[in-house]
Design goal:
The protein has 364 residues and is an alpha+beta fold. It contains twelve helices and ten strands. This is CubicO group peptidase (Beta-lactamase class C family).
Length: 364
């Protein structure tokens, strides 16, 4: 039978994914990419109008033991975690437990004066939830001084206090875009304070379970701390994949997921009619509306004028990307290695030709 004849409802189709008909155009493109960049293992999942139309696994989850990537293989998704955190914040906003314009620090802030030494600098008390989501809080950017890659023995709470005391803001909140992992770490603590649950517990309860996702979780730090079904990560050019405190990165880069679980999430936040989104239309509009400081970034998502949304993730031994296109497709791509900048440019463009090709089987 042709592939287009098995476009069943999304959850039912998931049970058929391992038997899906191969699409040579996609497979050859991915295999060439993996060969060029020495990618040991990779997983993809593509949806169209809310249905999973292609899911495929390539290469090895563990090259030493020759374990292939399979449908249950979990990969670090790195900064794709920010999409998840943004969704969780918006769930709290919908529940009227939070406002995007709430301040974060200070007597009137969500986190009060829990962290660092007082008195706070005036600009610190101006930071809002929205600005943290937009990376416009005024500092703590992802450069050589990124606090999230420092002091690995500190807890998230200790690191926040240390950062507030030792890394003052460099800009007025709301004025400049500066990509900030630390800002999303703070958002994780906001979620905990408001929900009364751990960050991971709240996300699983409010975001993942309504999407039918049970396998996603926060990853461990070392090779020995790998979770069940988690792949092995492979560094290139001397990178060491097991040197960072991944579990502390929870809200900005700590999740591990299968490609099909990410597909489940994407179809529930994509703004398309079916299946029903877990966010209201107003929340999705807010989530995908760019800031004045950066017309290419909204709340946890990169955006463009063509109504495409996406986010990539990168850590030593890890590359990921999720994309929502304006014409009804979403897709997730996961790799257990990374290399130079051209790697990410090519990963970003890997499946566009296939989803735009009228001859691709799912469009028949």
């Amino acid at each position: 039978m042709t592939y287009s004849r098995i476009l069943l409802p999304f959850l039912l189709l998931l049970s058929l994914r391992s038997n899906s008909q191969s699409i040579p155009e996609i497979d050859s493109t991915i295999q060439a990419f993996m060969t060029q960049y020495q990618v040991p293992g990779m997983a993809i999942a593509i949806t169209h109008h809310g249905k999973l139309v292609y899911a495929r696994n390539y290469g090895y989850a563990d090259t030493l033991r020759k374990i292939p990537v399979n449908n249950n293989s979990l990969f670090r998704i790195a900064s794709v975690s920010k999409c998840i955190t943004a969704t969780a914040i918006l769930k709290l906003v919908e529940a009227k437990q939070l406002s995007l314009d709430n301040t974060v620090f200070g007597l009137q802030g969500v986190l009060g004066t829990t962290y660092g030494q007082q008195p706070y600098a005036p600009n610190l008390e101006k930071i809002t939830i929205r600005q943290l989501l937009q990376h416009t809080a005024g500092g703590w950017t992802n450069n050589g001084s990124d606090p999230m890659f420092m002091h690995p023995a500190m807890t998230a709470e200790q690191l926040i206090s240390w950062t507030l005391d030792h890394q003052p803001l460099v800009d007025t909140p709301g004025k400049m875009y500066a990509y900030s992992n630390f800002g999303y770490c703070v958002l994780g603590r906001v979620i905990e304070k408001v929900s009364g649950m751990t960050y991971e517990q709240y996300v699983k309860t409010a975001v993942l379970q309504p999407c039918g996702i049970t396998g996603m979780q926060i990853g461990g730090n070392t090779l020995e701390q790998r979770k069940n079904n988690e792949v092995v990560y492979y560094g290139q050019h001397g990178e060491q994949p097991y040197v960072y405190n991944i579990s502390r990165m929870d809200a900005h880069g700590g999740w591990i997921a299968s490609a099909t679980d990410l597909a489940r999430l994407l179809v529930h936040v994509d703004g398309f009619p079916a299946p029903t989104d877990i966010l209201t239309p107003a929340s999705i509009t807010a989530m995908t509306t760019a800031s004045a400081a950066n017309p290419g970034y909204a709340l946890g998502w990169a955006v463009n004028p063509y109504h495409n949304w996406w986010h990539s993730g990168s850590l030593p031994g890890t590359a990921s990307e999720v994309i929502r296109s304006h014409h009804g497709f979403t897709w997730a791509m996961l790799c257990n290695t990374r290399t130079d900048s051209s790697f990410f440019n090519d990963l970003d463009g890997l499946l566009w030709k296939a989803v735009n090709n009228p001859a691709t089987p799912w469009k028949e």
